[in-house]
Amino acid sequence: MTEAPDMVDNDALELLTRRLVSNAALNSAERAAVSALMREVECFEAGACIVQHGAPCRRAWVLLEGFAYGQIGSRHSRRQIVGFYLAGDLLDLHGALTGLSSEAVIAATDCKIATLDAEALVSLIEAKPNLGRAFWIETLVEASIAREWIMNVGQRNARQRLAHLCCEMAWRSREAGLGDGRTFSMPITHEQLGDATGLTSLHVNHTLRKLEAQDLIVQDGHAIRIIDEARLRAEGDFEELYLCRSAPRSM
Amino acid sequence: MTEAPDMVDNDALELLTRRLVSNAALNSAERAAVSALMREVECFEAGACIVQHGAPCRRAWVLLEGFAYGQIGSRHSRRQIVGFYLAGDLLDLHGALTGLSSEAVIAATDCKIATLDAEALVSLIEAKPNLGRAFWIETLVEASIAREWIMNVGQRNARQRLAHLCCEMAWRSREAGLGDGRTFSMPITHEQLGDATGLTSLHVNHTLRKLEAQDLIVQDGHAIRIIDEARLRAEGDFEELYLCRSAPRSM
DNA sequence: CGCGGTATTGACGTTCTTCAACACTAGTGG
DNA sequence: CCACTAGTGTTGAAGAACGTCAATACCGCG
């Protein structure tokens, strides 16, 4: 998966459109306008850096396939992983809008990604403000997730953090149409999971095996299956409110 | 400060306009349009709940005077404070756009706040998409700050957390035109500071006095003065990149 | 086959929390 | 004017959760 197919296909277009529609109601003209945004498709190998932290930036991305994560951190400190990205998620809108990326984005698996040119994005929302609202809501939800992650590392113990994260990823995977709702893929090492939860890889390991021993989850490679959802949600104090992107009153 | 002056004055208008201009270049028509947004001014007493978490919502707010903080948390868990708000900051754009507030906002001191009607906000950005961009960037910066807070509670020890927070609040206070850049106001208890940093009030106390004993800061009531900025920044591993809201290439 | 990265397990330290007291301040009501 | 109270700040000691260190097992890959 190293060759770069540089054509945007219908699947990619539909993936982005579906996401925007789930943020705000769009008429057919607005839907059609989305196709002008995506320029080309690029592939990144697992471990590759898609976006550099603090680098000047002129575009955003749509993750089409694969699993990526955002991280921040200077030389002096250990890195912190600040978000996970699934197929359908938008990457680095901050960079596209402000001209500087505020987080690094790393491909955890091989990733297929469509680019959104910043100029095109700005002139699109100039022409179709309602689309701008859909993108904006994407950012609002991202901020909401970040706040919940602060809660996770700030107030919960290792067990609760991992339980909560499992619930979140299961939920988001289901929303993205990946897995069956009970099973989801988290293709990262314990080391990275530790950097996301503020724990060491050793403690992640220990805690995950404990959750498994108590029949809350089962690990199968890098896939996780939730056995007892009710109990897991209770353990992690999970409430999906913060993940909801719909605008009840519509436009 | 319990009476509600329900008139929007020029100061309030200018505060909001200045903030939006620092996000995106605005022409005079766009600046003028901002005045249609603010409806009325409300006052909240210290401790009052301005926004309820999970409540249906039809408006956003501009903090005109005072100090507020955002928090999340269910009955079963201790609350986590996920952000501080100073004069000029926008509150609950998430609620205005999605119809549900994703965090509670509490007044730490008496606060004067202008309301932005959600309908008016949506139709304004429909008419002036460039203004929408300015609001959007506000959200992007908020998300960026939230990510840095994840870093704070996830990777740094008590000393670093408080040093970093002091640097952030000093920076933001200066940007907001409050204090002299070295001194800033943080009118909250150690308890609340602990809820923001993922520590206990006792540990906050201890750590703060240590920072003071080593001549990094001085506390004067609820004001903090930074004595040795270079050393404090080094301690907290502070880089202001994540706070920058300017779009270098403008529109 | 051998190598490097990852997972796993146990012993030992450190940071932070919890518990228990007490001091200081402001506000309240007598 | 003076208790009285409640909230906050301060200090010390004991305990728990999590990190660090060390060693071994596993597994895909060249």
Would you give an account of this structure?
- Two copies of one chain form a homodimer.
- With 251 residues, chain A is α+β, with helices and mostly antiparallel strands.
- Chain A has two domains: 10-149, Jelly Rolls (Sandwich); 156-243, Orthogonal Bundle (Arc Repressor Mutant, subunit A), CATH 1.10.10.
- Chain A contains nine helices and eleven strands.
- In chain A, a hairpin with a 7-residue loop joins strand 4 and strand 5.
- In chain A, helix 4 packs across helix 5 (129-155).
- The longest helix of chain A has 27 residues, at 129-155.
- Chains A and B meet through strand 5, helix 3, helix 4 and helix 5 of A and strand 5, helix 3, helix 4 and helix 5 of B.
- Chain A binds a DNA duplex (30 and 30 nucleotides) through residues 157-158, 189-191, 199-203, 205-206, 209.
